[in-house]
Design the sequence.
């Protein structure tokens, strides 16, 4: 009997199916995006990061940059560039991808 080879579980852009994140990089599924639930990822791939801007989010002031699919340019979420409150520093360099903007690929 042949061994079943299972690749990494991926998340893709909801618009064009470009692979944008690995399930193994999910830190939390308990975040809030602009349009509902969002996931915090340690890494993202095949994305472009827009210009930095300060935003007042639910957890305080942060410097963030919107994250776009590198293929279709759909806004998927944002990257935390800086957290001003000490308790929020763990988010720096991490990515928020909105649940409504990503789909599970092949799992």
Sequence:
């Amino acid at each position: 009997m042949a061994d079943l080879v299972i690749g990494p579980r991926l998340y893709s852009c909801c618009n064009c199916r470009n692979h944008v994140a690995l399930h193994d990089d999910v830190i939390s599924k308990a975040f809030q995006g602009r349009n509902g639930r969002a996931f915090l990822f340690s890494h993202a791939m095949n994305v472009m990061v827009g210009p930095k801007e300060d935003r007042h989010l639910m957890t305080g002031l942060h410097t963030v940059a919107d994250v776009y699919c590198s293929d279709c340019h759909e806004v998927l979420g944002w990257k935390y560039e800086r957290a001003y409150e000490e308790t929020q520093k763990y988010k720096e360099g991490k990515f928020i991808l909105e649940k409504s903007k990503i789909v599970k690929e092949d799992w």
Observations:
- The chain has one domain: 10-104.
